[in-house]
Design a protein that fits this description.
The complex is a heterodimer of chains A (115) and B (110). With 115 residues, chain A is mainly β. Chain A is built from no helices and eleven strands. Chain A is globular, with a radius of gyration of 13 Å. The termini of chain A are far apart. In chain A, 34% of the residues are buried. Chain B has strands spanning 4-7, 10-14, 19-25, 31-37, 44-49, 55-58, 61-65, 71-76, 85-92, 98-100, 104-109. The mean pLDDT of chain B is 92. Chain B has 110 residues and is an all-beta fold. In chain B, strand 7 (61-65) and strand 8 (71-76) form a beta hairpin. In chain B, strands 2, 4, 5, 9, 10 and 11 form a six-stranded mixed beta sheet that branches. In chain B, strands 1-3-8-7-6 form a five-stranded antiparallel beta sheet, with no helix packed on it. Chain B has no helices and eleven strands. At the A-B interface, strand 4, strand 5, strand 9 and strand 10 of A face strand 4, strand 5, strand 9 and strand 10 of B.
């Protein structure tokens, strides 16, 4: 079974440029998460989807970040314009969403460097 | 949101030694998870705990869900070089809101 697939794995851009990350979750996983991970820190939640609905986007900086999951499967996370402080790893995770046994499976992440 | 306090921040141990790390919070959770992350990869699940007081093992790893539902610990016995990595605790509330600790960086000297 394929795991959570993310692309690109690495992206280097200049500040003020746009960037987009793509995530394909595990088949059948209704819940999809985007996390931000700064160097030496734990993942921090940006947004959580239940199917197509963004049920928790309270930590998403909406002035420059946007996300979508149009058909309840793949998701994209966009930053426009990027700032130096956005350099980090962006992790996507998915789960069945069963509150009694919810386990997140992570992708390998997309490492962003903003110059 | 709720904050998870994970300690220690880092550990330097000799191969063969046992390791213990823990996570605490002021909030009550339904699930505690322990993940390991290696360089350039996403976190990988080690152990999941679903009930207060639950003690679960996975090979040389043992984790417990505290009876107050506000803490958890992870033990690694007889450490080996491939145990090197960053270990994260994660907690889950009833609404699928999952948060992570800051991680424990483990270094194992052969």
């Amino acid at each position: 079974e394929a795991g959570v697939v993310q692309s690109p794995r690495y992206k280097i851009i200049e500040k003020k440029q746009p960037v987009a990350f793509w995530c394909n979750p595990i088949s059948g996983h209704n819940t999809l998460y985007w996390y931000l991970q700064n160097l030496g820190q734990g993942p921090e939640l940006l947004i959580r989807y239940e199917n197509e609905e963004a049920v928790d986007d309270s930590q998403l900086p909406k002035d420059r970040f946007s996300a979508e999951r149009l058909k309840g499967v793949d998701s994209t996370l966009k930053i426009q314009p990027a700032e130096l402080g956005d350099s980090a790893v962006y992790l996507c995770a998915s789960s069945l969403g069963d509150p009694g046994a919810n386990v997140l499976t992570f992708g390998a992440g997309s490492r962003l460097t903003v110059l | 949101g709720q904050q998870l306090n994970q300690s220690p921040q880092s550990m330097f141990i000799q191969e063969g030694e046992d390791v213990s790390m823990n996570c605490t919070s002021s909030s009550i959770f339904n699930t505690w998870l322990w993940y390991k992350q290696e360089p350039g990869e996403g976190p990988v699940l080690l152990i999941a705990l679903y009930k207060a007081g639950e003690l679960t093992s996975n090979g040389r790893l043992t984790a417990q869900f505290g009876i107050t539902r506000k803490d958890s610990f992870l033990n690694i016995s007889a450490s080996i070089p491939s145990d090197v990595g960053i270990y994260f605790c994660a907690s889950l509330r009833w609404n699928n809101d999952m948060r992570f600790g800051a991680g424990t960086r483990l270094t194992v000297k052969p």
